[in-house]
Amino acid sequence: MKLIYTILLSLFISFSFAQDLNQLDSNGERHGNWKKNFEDTKVLRYEGTFDHGKEVGTFKFYKNINGQAILTATRTFNSDTDLAQVKFYSSTKHLISEGQMRGKTYVGRWVYYHNKSKQIMTQEFYNNKGELEGEKRTYYLSGKMAKKENYVGGVLNGESRSFSETEKLISVFNYTNNELHGPAKIYDTKGDLQMEGVYQKDRRHGLWKFYENGKLKEEKDLTRRSNNPVKKRL
Q1: What is the mean pLDDT of residues 43-57?
Q2: What pLDDT, on the 0 to 100 scale, is given for residue 79?
Q3: Hey, which residues does 58 pair with through a beta bridge?
């Protein structure tokens, strides 16, 4: 008797829950718990809760992989703002990246993680237009900094520095509107200067100096854009 009662209760709860799913309010807005499947399948596409057409709480989104619903993203909505805290996941359930979004626009700080690791790979910032803005940092799996660069309005501007995993400076470049422009220096793995010069609009320009074992070895005047720049060996 208890078994029959338990089965009937389970069926009643399931039926009641199903009745509460995917409802519309009097204005035709989605309201309450919603679940949607991929078209012509029984594979879950997303699930979450609406409050008279507005998303509230945490929504979960899935991929259809071989007929299985695999979590691909979550969005947690804040009733006080129009921003959602978003997390993206790999098919192996590892966190790929996280940050805030306004609709489909990235806003504020975003971090990306190394594969199957909690170690940050990249940290970057977005303005309200969804453009990269400010300092972007890239890290090795060890946590050591690999690169530091600056964005303004979605394009590279200012100084960019790269480092080896042993924290040696590898290069220093300058950018203007996404083009190499200004002083540049490149170092070897020991941290000794290998070459230095100036870029103009993505091309080497003027006098470039080349070093060996820390000593000046050669100079090239690249002012004339020809295949045979003037060389001066020292």
Answers
A1: 96
A2: 82
A3: 76
Dump pLDDT digits (tens) for 72-108. 999 999 888 999 999 999 999 999 999 999 999 999 9
Q: Is the pTM of this model over 0.90?
A: no
Residue with tokens 């990249």: 122
Query: What digits encode the pLDDT tens for the residues 183-227?
Result: 999 999 888 999 999 999 999 999 999 999 889 999 999 876 544
Closest by CA position to 165, among listed 183, 148, 187, 141? 141
167 lies in a domain? Answer: no
| Residue 200 to residue 98: CA distance in whole angstroms | 37
22 is a domain residue:
yes
The answer to whether position 99 is within a domain reads yes
- Which SS3 state, helix, strand or coil, does residue 94 take? coil
Residues in the chain, how many?
Answer: 234
Sign of CA dihedral 52, 53, 57, 62: positive
Residue 94 CA to residue 114 CA, distance in Å, equals 10
CA distances, 35 to each of 2, 11, 65, 147, 163 (Å) = 32, 19, 18, 43, 48
Q: Tell me whether residue 87 is in a domain.
A: yes
Domain with 46, as residue range(s), is 18-103
State how far the Cα of 47 lies from the Cα of 66, in Å rounded to an integer. Answer: 19
- Number of compact structural domains in the chain: 1
